[in-house]
Structures are given as C-alpha cells and as structure tokens.
Amino acid sequence: MYAPADHLLHLQWEPFARDVDVREARELLADGAACRPPVSGTVYGTLLNDAAALEAMGDAVHAAPYKAPPKAPILYVKPRNTLAGHRAQVAVPDDDAGIEAGGSLGVVIGRTASRVTSDRALEFVAGYTIVADLCVPHQSVYRPSVRFRARDGFCVIGPTVVARRHVADPDALPIAIDIEGKGTFRASTGTTIRKVAQLIADVTDFMTLSAGDVLTLGVPHGAPIARAGDNVRIAIGDWPPLSFSTIAQGGAR
C-alpha cells in the first residue's frame, strides 16, 4: 500500500522523497526549492471529462470520426520523458501557437485497483497532486497525437502529493492557473462529467491501475496559452502551488 501520511515532496537534490506536514512543505518551497515529480508510476490523462469541453464540440461529437459522445473514459499516456517537477523549464516548440497550460487534479493510486466499484473507489486513492498537463493547441481530440501531448517536460507534477485524509471532497476543489502578467484562469473539479470515484471505477473496469499510478481528472475547457518566457503557477485549493517556466525550443538546459 502506497500511502503518504501528510505531504510528500521530493527535493531536486535529495535521493528520496520526504513526508512532511504542510508548514514544512511551504517553508521548503518558499526558499525557491526545485523538486522532482513526487510520483513514480504511469500517468494517464483523461479527455472530454469536462462538461464545457464536451459542450464546445457541439454537433461535431455526433459526426465522423466520433459519431457519438464517449461512453467510456478517453485516456492517453504521458510517458516518462514528459515528467517534470516543480520549477521545471519547459520548451515551447512553436511560440506562435504556444502551449496549452492545462491544470488538472491528479489522483494518485495507493494500491492495485481492478474492477473496483464507485462506492469503494476512494479507498484505493493514496492522495492527490497537481498536474500541469501540457499540449500543443489543436482542434481534434480523436486519437490524440503523440507529438502534441508527449513532448519532453509536458507533464509537470507536484510539488507535493497531498494525503487523501486532507481532502474532504476531491470533486469540489477550485483550480487557478496564473500566467504572470496575463491574469488568472479559474475552474473547478466540480465541472467534470465523471467524478473521481466514478472515473476510477470506469477505468478499472477495463484496465488495472497500480500503486503510484496517476489518473488525471482532465483539463478544464479554455485553459490558457503560455509562450516562451512565461512563468506559470497552478493552484488547487489551498495546497502548495505548482510552478514552472517556459523557454523557446532550443533554449532548454
């Protein structure tokens, strides 16, 4: 069973993650500490789980190639090369297009979950984290392109995993995405079609999730666009926020 007691974070220069209280986590992060991702499993993104995103498709959702609204979760994998931690630098491949700075709730699985029911699904959750699920802006969500979603650093996670016991209702959390100098985009986990427990139940009906895996609730519709030189801050509830910066392609270190 993978289960942080409090707030799990992994400082960049330390070999192992720490399990600390929120006060210590904030103190460490206030000093400008960079972090590694606080998770080690596979990260699965979820598409079209935001009511506004599905509504924005309009009649197109009934036309080819979709033909109907999704009857099961639409998932994609954020492979290992995409994973980055708090205060990472992310390269923007085309500054005219920028990158969509999607902020999502990450559900961290605590033990092997296969065919779990929605009424027991939260028992399989170790905690929650912030996921900056980045992508190159594009129109089609049919067979998501690897080159749009799986570029290096396109999944910034952290800075902490917040233990499940600290989160009374994962389906009622405010999300704020701030791009320095460009205002704040606000959303909520309350607008999702499949809530956390139902999403876990529906996903584990056809595939097994393992301890340490992360299942995102999905990016809210209308997430802002970041361009090279931006500083991005994503907050969920009152948790320690996740920050990263963007640089032009070719400028990554």
Automatic annotation (TrEMBL):
Cite the entry's keywords alphabetically: Isomerase, Metal-binding
The record's listing under InterPro entries reads:
Fumarylacetoacetase-like_C (IPR011234), Fumarylacetoacetase_C_sf (IPR036663), HPA_isomer/decarb_N (IPR012686)
GO MF annotation terms: 5-carboxymethyl-2-hydroxymuconate delta-isomerase activity; 5-oxopent-3-ene-1,2,5-tricarboxylate decarboxylase activity; metal ion binding
Q: Name one Pfam family in it.
A: FAA_hydrolase
The source's domain of life comes to: Bacteria
Q: Which segments constitute the Fumarylacetoacetase-like C-terminal domain? A: 42-239
Q: What is this protein called?
A: 2-hydroxyhepta-2,4-diene-1,7-dioate isomerase
